[in-house]
Specification:
Blueprint: H1 2-22, H2 28-48
């Protein structure tokens, strides 16, 4: 179930990233970096469990 949650989370990030490519604004950049950092931390924690 944890893996499913991660996959949904990753899919959401990818959606945001693909949408930002179409209309990228400098204001979104820090938020995307923050989300990517959160994603990598979440995945690393899940892999260690």
């Amino acid at each position: 179930q944890e893996i499913n949650a991660n996959m949904v989370f990753m899919a959401q990030i990818e959606k945001v990233l693909s949408e930002s490519d179409e209309s990228s604004s400098s204001a979104e950049e820090p938020l995307l970096r923050y989300l990517i950092t959160l994603l990598s931390l979440k995945v690393n924690l899940s892999l260690e469990l």
